[in-house]
Structures are given as C-alpha cells and as structure tokens.
C-alpha cells in the first residue's frame, strides 16, 4: 500500500516566513524517499487542510502537526478540516504532553489516516533544543558554564502551551548537561523579560520553542530581553545584558533536525522510516543528538 506524509502547519497571511519550516522539512524528508508522497498543508495558506487529502493518491496517510503544543488546532481544527470521522481527543489518552497517534478513516476520500500528536511535544524535541544550542554557539560540547532558557508563548487560552515548555526544560535539566535550565514565557511568569535574573551562569542560551521566526521571535523577545533596543537594528550573538552573555537562537522549528522529529512521529504511528531518520540525522548534524 502506498504511503504519504502530510505536514500540517498554521501558516500566516502576514508573515511570509511562517510556512518556511514546513516546506524546508518536507523537502528534507522527500529527499529520503521514505514516502511515496510528501505534502504540506496550512490553516492560513494554501494548500489548505481541507483539500490536502484530495491531492494524494496514497491510500495510507501519516499526518504530523507542525505545532508546539496540544490544543485548539491539534484537537479541533485539524481533525475537523481533514474530516476525520470518529475522532475524539480522548483517544490520544494525553495529559497535555504525551499525545501519540490515532488511526482513523477519512471515508470521503477512501483513505486511512494516522493522525499524530504535535511535533512540539515529542520527546525528541528535547534533542532539537540541545542541537539548537549547539548551532547558535558553534560548540558541539556546549553545556558546562551555560544556562539554557526554553521560551514559550504562554497563554491562558491553552494551558497545554506552558506544559510543553516545562516538559522539555525538565527533561533537559535531568540530563545535567547545562549548569541551569529554566522555562520562561512571553505572556506569563516567569517572564523572558527578566531572563538574566534566573541564572547564575555567565552564558545563557535562549531557545524559543516556536515553529517559525516571526514577530515574537524576531521583534518582541529580543527587545524584551534587552539584547537590542530596536529589532530593526539587529543584535549581536552573543550580546551582553546585566553581566550575562545572551546567545539568542531564534525559533527552534527552523532547526534542520526538526525533520527527524517529524519522521519519528510518523514512525511511532507505524511508518517505516528508520533509514530516513538515520539519513536526516547525518545530513543535519544531529547524529549524536539522542545520545547526548
């Protein structure tokens, strides 16, 4: 039976870079030949959630949401727009961070759909955050003498948004690689504005757990942290603030190793992607990420 992968993202009418990670990671995965078809679909751009399944010839489809957390889009919008019959969020048996996959029928197009949990809550995203720290510092051994701040949006509308940030911060802290690890947020405490107050380490790597670079990661967060007074003038990496060197990494979703997490989501749902995962890790420099 032929198999397809669909990467679904939010997209944006205002930020042309919003969909770029989805297309980039799709290209990486497409090059491995692991699937007969690889498609991207968006809520705010074309191709749309509603029509993407109709563009596929494959009878078996793995749908992976390129979203940070479980919530409104992964639990309501995407299943509704894909017309996944008998979908129920209870089938994920998740407490907000451990959604896996559900197999459902899209009878209107005659396809079997393996609907996966979001990329942002997969365990391997912890490895991508570490890889992001390596990338921004240029140091594969980064950790000793460094603090790591994992930044989330934070919102009262979706309590799972913060859960994902704390989840990965806790997992990375347990590894003992960095001197300190802290979850911080834009719209709730502890706030990224005060990031230097939460660390004793002289160097702090700041990694936003966002899918794409946009207004928040390229304008709000840099100004809030004080690494620049005006985002339009840019900033140095690292930039010194309150006696700490801030290594600002930008959105984690732009890290090439995210393609690995997408493949792992599909693999967890039954896709044969072991060789593709090895190829992606080799290509992205994340070969040893899981063992670090």
TrEMBL record:
Transmembrane segments: none annotated. One of its GO terms (molecular function) is metal ion binding. Keywords: Cobalamin biosynthesis, Cobalt, Lyase, Metal-binding. It comes from the Archaea. One of its GO terms (biological process) is cobalamin biosynthetic process. InterPro entries: CbiX-like, Sirohydro_Cobaltochel/CbiX. The keyword Lyase applies. Pfam families: CbiX. The keyword Membrane does not apply. PANTHER family: SIROHYDROCHLORIN FERROCHELATASE, CHLOROPLASTIC. This is CbiX/SirB N-terminal domain-containing protein. The lineage of its organism: Archaea, Methanobacteriati, Methanobacteriota, Stenosarchaea group, Halobacteria.
């Amino acid at each position: 039976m032929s198999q397809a992968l669909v990467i679904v993202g939010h997209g944006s009418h205002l930020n042309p870079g919003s969909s770029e990670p989805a297309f980039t990671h799709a290209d990486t995965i497409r090059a491995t030949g692991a699937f007969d078809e690889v498609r991207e679909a968006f809520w705010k751009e074309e191709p749309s959630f509603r029509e993407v399944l109709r563009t596929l010839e494959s009878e078996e489809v793995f749908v992976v949401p390129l979203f940070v957390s479980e919530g409104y889009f992964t639990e309501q919008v995407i299943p509704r727009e894909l017309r996944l019959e008998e979908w129920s969020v209870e089938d994920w048996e998740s407490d907000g961070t451990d959604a896996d996959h559900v197999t459902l029928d899209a009878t209107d197009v005659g396809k079997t759909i393996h609907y996966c949990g979001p990329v942002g809550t997969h365990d391997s995203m912890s490895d991508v955050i570490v890889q992001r720290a390596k990338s921004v510092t240029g140091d594969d051994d980064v950790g000793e003498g460094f603090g790591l701040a994992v930044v989330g949006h934070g919102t009262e509308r979706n309590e799972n948004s913060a859960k994902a940030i704390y989840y990965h911060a806790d997992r990375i802290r347990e590894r003992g690689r960095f001197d300190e690890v802290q979850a911080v947020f834009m719209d709730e405490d502890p706030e990224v504005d005060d990031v230097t107050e939460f660390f004793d380490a002289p160097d702090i790597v700041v990694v936003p757990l966002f899918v794409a670079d946009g207004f928040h990661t390229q304008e709000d967060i840099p100004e809030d942290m004080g690494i620049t007074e005006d985002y339009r003038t840019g900033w140095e990496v690292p930039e010194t603030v309150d006696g700490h060197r801030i290594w600002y990494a930008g959105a984690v979703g732009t890290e090439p190793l995210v393609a690995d997490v997408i493949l792992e989501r599909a693999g967890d749902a039954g896709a044969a992607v072991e060789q593709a995962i090895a190829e992606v890790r080799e290509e992205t420099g994340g070969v040893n990420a899981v063992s670090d």
